[in-house]
Amino acid sequence: MEKEVSGYVCPVCGKKRMKIILVESEVPYFGKILISSSKCESCGFKFNDVFSVESKEPLEYRIRVTEEEDLMVRVIKSSSATVIIPELGLKIEPGPLSQGYVSNVEGVLRKVEEVFKGQYNVLKGKKKEKMKGLIEKLERMIEGLEEFSLIIKDPLGNSAIVSKKARKRKLRKSEIKKLKMGYLMFEKK
């Protein structure tokens, strides 16, 4: 199913030129998802998200990446999810512009790599050297030469790591309270 709707107000330019395309898809071992792709036809602002069509409970997914083939494991990350890679000291929390995506483990690492390299270019001194070490470690992970854990915590249950190797568990109420949830809502006026 694909549906296109127009006439929403862009949160950036304020014009009623937001076009939203909704696509329903089936993901093995996860269920039906709705992929939302939004673009303002006036200023070019883009926003994407992924939602589970079925009601889900707050969940944590965790996978230990120990071999190169684990890099191809499917990852569904919604805008409400927190992504953690402990070996990098990395915790990516959602904010108002947090976007959802469907990718794989390598794709998640590539997104992190892009941010790290952008930061590297503006850092100086010891911070720059530390970032260089993190980028080198990240590159070894991308090449499948270094083991690591990927953890996704989603208070709305719209995320997943789709693999028999992945472990999932229900989040406790105390854990949910500590998680941030970023929302961006489009208004139709």
Structure, described:
With 189 residues, the chain is α+β, with helices and mostly antiparallel strands. The chain has one domain: ZPR1, A/B domain (Jelly Rolls, Sandwich). It has three helices and twelve strands. The strands form three sheets. It has a five-stranded antiparallel beta sheet, with no helix packed on it. Strands 1-2-3-4 form a four-stranded antiparallel beta sheet, with no helix packed on it. β3 (31-40) and β4 form a beta hairpin.
Q: What is the element layout, followed by pairings?
A:
Elements (H helix, E strand, L loop, with lengths): L1 E7 L9 E10 L3 E10 L5 E7 L6 E7 L8 E4 L4 E4 L4 E3 L8 E4 H16 L4 H18 L5 E7 L5 E3 L4 E4 L2 H6 L11
Antiparallel strand pairs: 1-2, 2-3, 3-4, 5-10, 5-12, 6-9, 6-11, 7-8, 7-10
Helix pairs in contact: 1-2
The CATH architecture name reads Sandwich
CATH topology title:
Jelly Rolls
The number of distinct helices, counting runs of at least 4 residues, comes to: 3
Please state the structural category. Answer: alpha+beta
Mean pLDDT: 90
- The Cα radius of gyration reads 18 Å
Largest sheet features: 5 strands, antiparallel
**Percent helix range:** 10-25%
Strand order of the largest sheet: 8-7-10-5-12
How much strand? 35-45%
The H-level CATH homologous superfamily, spelled out, is ZPR1, A/B domain
Instruction: Report the uncertain regions.
Output: none
Number of domains in the coordinates? 1
User: What shape does the CA trace take?
Assistant: globular
Number of strands: 12
CATH level 1 class label: Mainly Beta
Q: Give the termini distance in whole angstroms.
A: 26 Å
What is the N-to-C order of secondary-structure elements (H for helix, E for strand)?
EEEEEEEEEHHEEEH
